[in-house]
Design a protein that fits this description.
The complex is a heterodimer of chains A (about 290) and B (about 350). Chain A is α+β, with helices and mostly antiparallel strands. Chain A has 8 helices and 10 strands. Classes of the chains: A alpha+beta (about 290), B mainly alpha (about 350).
Chain lengths: ~290, ~350
């Protein structure tokens, strides 16, 4: 059989139709039935991305999910970074055993004296796993508590040496960090990881507080001699959520979104649903 | 003999022009004289052929039209890229003003409409230049279509999207005889195969570029593909496969020859770098030999370019810090002279072998 123009036309139209069908049916399946989770998120957890020169003409709007991890041992060093949540982190629960369960090879000794071992860890690239997001839950309360403790410790140190300028600055920074933690920082934390969605849902049954999403994790070695292994949550597979046309006005005018001083100022509350394929969408949004 | 594509018709027309010039020369030198009937028969046949080709494929019948064609090709290439970018930015500028159903509708109409328009234009455009513009816009619309569906419905990014894009670009490339779309399709294929290779080791697919060895299976597939498919009707297609195959082979090797720590191999960094340096030299030399033997100029040129890059990278590593600059560049100059001598010898031996094999 000779390949003709008609064959090409049919093949092309078929390819276009099939690809679109797969994408649209997949999206419809994700949103069918009862959502896997429904989280109430505010301007603290969803932010409009910075409009840089290259995407200023983009008339669409997608909100970035601002997520965090809590790493208790280094809370005091992290206090200065609390305003810059969402750039990854090394939570205490993502330890060697958890990393092994996620499929990483943790058999080699990690100590820096064993060069081959540490290289083996450095060479392991991020894997896609399931991450559990918790909104305004115990982890956020713990983070708030740590910020309060930090203020108390800084104030106690200043009280013992009242004239110390450095300690005075530290108290101011700690108070500011507490203010951010109380009123502005995201309350959305990555609190667990796994490979089986059913097992994770069984562990975190509250679908209004916990959502399961896809994200990436990679191993990291730390300690005085780099002898300890832990995991680093490096990102979510879907970092931003498209705003439906009908809800667009809730998030401000185009001019407001482009203005760096006005951006993310207007308070709002949204409901974000996570579907059968763990893909999110905004179901409701209202100005507060 | 009838030509089935524009490139085939153009090749035949060029052969006819060369034949006429050589025939005139032979007749002037008294080597060959055709009878009046023979001369008329040849001239009539060639005139008919050229007229048929000109009607069917709008070929270049003389040197001047060939020069103009080169200009048209450049304009068509730039225009195709610019129109594709224009479609992309046009949608971005206005898509937020429509509800989701209208957005999806516009994307579908654009993808299907531009594909159908490409076929309509192809039926009326013997030159192929306008078809190239339309095909490139159709490809851009399809890429935009799937990428935007992903954005509108927050679909998890996947390397699988690259497969229909590659298939669509290749379909348009073969249907409309377009090398630009072939290159686009091959790039999608390289990315898809490399990403899949990366995921076999467990990594998240977007990180596939961090292990250059992921590109090797794509390179091997691209180097073998033109041997399996008959590309006689598609001038330059086989060469494009081979060039992209060699780029996918030698670029990762070059990276690994300098940054061994990003290899899959579980050895000392210096050992890995040394291994890929040797592999780079042996590979490029083998490719130059193969290209010379099979008369694939693009393979010889690509192999030669990488051989020189591998060589000069090593020279830089060894001598840049310890040699005075004049001496360093003098050594580079000497090595170029040495390469010239080697290639002159290769060329002479090739010519000798061709002479001996001819009857």
């Amino acid at each position: 059989m000779k390949w003709s123009r008609t064959h090409t036309l049919i093949a092309g139209l078929g390819l276009l139709a099939l690809t679109n069908a797969v994408a649209l049916v997949g999206a419809a399946y994700n949103r069918s039935g009862e959502p896997e989770a429904k989280l109430r998120l505010t301007q603290r957890e969803l932010q409009t991305p910075y409009r840089w020169y290259g995407n200023r003409e983009n008339s669409g709007l997608a909100l970035s999910l601002i997520w965090r991890v809590l790493n208790e041992p280094s809370t005091e060093t992290e206090i200065y970074n609390w305003r810059y949540a969402g750039t990854g982190g090394t939570p205490a629960w993502l330890d060697k055993a958890k990393m092994e369960a996620l499929g990483f090879d943790t058999s080699a000794p990690a100590a820096s004296s064993d060069l081959q071992g540490s290289i083996r860890y450095e060479k392991q690239l991020p894997r896609e796993v399931l991450l559990v997001l918790e909104v305004d839950g115990p982890t956020y309360q713990r983070s708030l508590e740590l910020a309060k403790q930090y203020v108390a410790r800084a104030e106690a140190k200043l009280a013992s040496s009242p004239g110390d300028k450095n300690l005075g600055t530290r108290v101011n920074n700690a108070r500011e960090a507490l203010e951010w933690e109380t009123d502005r920082n995201s309350r959305l934390f990555v609190v667990d990881a796994g490979l089986e969605p059913v097992a994770l849902r069984a562990k975190y049954p509250d679908a209004t507080r916990y959502a399961i999403v896809r994200g990436q994790v990679r191993p990291e070695i730390f300690g005085r001699n780099s002898e300890k292994v832990r995991g680093f949550v490096s990102g979510l597979s879907i970092e931003s959520i498209n705003v439906p046309f009908a809800l667009r006005d809730v998030f401000g005018s185009a001019a407001q979104l482009n203005d760096i001083d006005q951006r993310n100022k207007a308070p709002f509350e949204t409901t974000v649903a996570f579907g059968k394929q763990l893909e999110p969408w905004i179901t409701t949004a209202a100005k507060k | 003999m009838s030509a089935s594509s524009r490139s085939e018709a153009q090749q035949r027309a060029d052969d006819i022009r060369t034949f006429q010039a050589e025939l005139d020369r032979l007749e002037r030198e008294g080597v060959l004289t055709l009878g009046a009937d023979q001369r008329r028969a040849v001239a009539d046949h060639q005139r008919d052929l050229l007229a048929t080709y000109a009607r069917a494929f709008d070929i270049d019948r003389d040197a001047q039209s060939r020069q103009l064609s080169i200009g048209m090709r450049a304009a068509s290439f730039l225009g195709a890229l610019a129109l594709a970018a224009s479609v992309f930015f046009l949608f971005y500028q206005f898509w937020g003003l429509f509800p989701e159903t209208a957005q999806v509708g516009i994307l579908l109409v654009a993808a299907f409409g531009t594909f159908a328009a490409t076929f309509v234009i192809q039926a009326r455009d013997a030159t192929g230049y306008f078809t190239k513009l339309a095909a490139m816009v159709a490809f851009a619309c399809f890429v935009l279509n799937i990428a935007m569906l992903g954005q509108i419905f927050n679909i998890t990014p996947s390397d699988k999207a690259l497969l229909p894009w590659a298939a669509f670009a290749l379909l348009l490339a073969y249907a409309c005889d377009l090398r630009l779309l072939l290159a686009a399709g091959i790039l999608c294929l390289i990315t898809f195969i490399s990403a899949r290779t990366g995921t076999w080791s467990g990594m998240y697919w977007l990180h596939f570029g961090e292990r250059p060895e992921n590109f090797f299976p794509a390179a091997i597939a691209l180097l073998f593909l033109p041997q399996l498919l008959d590309h006689r009707r598609f001038q330059g297609f086989a060469a494009i496969y081979r060039v992209f195959g060699l780029l996918s082979l030698f670029l990762p090797m070059l990276v690994l020859a300098n940054w061994g720590q990003i290899s899959y191999l579980d050895f000392n960094r210096t050992l890995i770098q040394g291994f890929y340096q040797v592999l780079g030299f042996v590979g490029t030399a083998a490719v130059i030999w193969l290209g010379t033997k099979r008369h694939w100029p693009e393979v010889v040129n690509t192999g030669l370019t990488f051989f020189v890059i591998f060589l000069y990278t090593k020279f830089y590593d060894w001598w840049w810090d310890i040699m005075p600059k004049y001496l360093f560049f003098f050594v580079i100059g000497l090595s170029a002279v040495l390469l010239l001598v080697v290639f002159k010898r290769l060329r002479a031996s090739g010519t000798r072998a061709a002479g001996e094999s001819s009857p």
